[in-house]
Amino acid sequence: MNQKSLNWGIAITGIWLTVIIIVWFFGGLKSPSSLNELGDALAGIVAPIAFLWLIMGYVQQGKQLDQNTKALEQQERALQLQIDEMQKGIEQQRQLVQTQKEQQSEQRQLLFPKLFISDFQARAAFGNNLSADNSSGEYIYDNAVFITIYFNLENLGEDAYHFKIIEKKTLECLENIDLLKRSDKAEMKLHLSTELVDQLNLNKQLEELFNVSYECKNGFEIQRDLFMQLYPRNVNSPFFHVNMHLDKELKYEA
Question: What is the pTM of this model?
C-alpha cells in the first residue's frame, strides 16, 4: 500500500473514531450494561473501519497486480528485443559464414582443372558375316565384336592428377592419365566391355554413364559423370555416331 492510501485510511479512521466519541459523550447514549451490549457496540464501531481497510487493501492489491502485469509486459518486450537482436546476430553470422564458404569455394575452383572433350568417334570390328546387300547397296552385319571410342581431352584449367574413366557397372578402369597439365590435350580411347557391346547388339543403340575422377592441386578429388550415346548412322550401317559430354556438376571432397 502506498503512502497516500495509508494516509487516507488513517485520516478516515480517525474521523470515524472522533465522530463515535462525540456522539457517545455528547449524544446522550447510555453505556453498555453487559458484555453482550459492549460487544455489539464495539462491533458496530469497528466493522465500518474493517470494511474500509478491506476495500482499500483490495484496491491496492489490484493496483499491485496491474503494476506486476506491466512489469512482466516490459520484461517480455525486453526479452523479445533481446531475442530479435540474437536472431539478427545469428542471421548476420549465417550470412557471413555463407559468404566465407562461397569465397572458399571460388578460391578452390580457381585451382580446379577445366576439362573439355571433343572430336569423339567410334570404331567397331564385326564378325565374319559382313556382306553387301545387292538390292539396296547397304552393308548388312550381324554383331559388333569390338568397339573403341576415341576422343580428345583438353585441360584449360589447372593441372589434373590421376585422371580415370571407370565403367560404373563393372568398376573397370577404361582409361587413366597420371598428369594432364594446363593447356595440354590428350588422345583418349575407351574399349567398351563385352557387356556394353552385347547391349548395343541387342538394342541397336547404347546410352551409358561413366565415372570420371581426378585430383586438383589443392588435394581435392573431383567426381563427374561422362555421358555417352552410341547409335548406327543408318539402318544396317556398320558405322556409328557417338555423342559425349561431361556433366557440369562437380562433386568433390578433400
Answer: 0.54
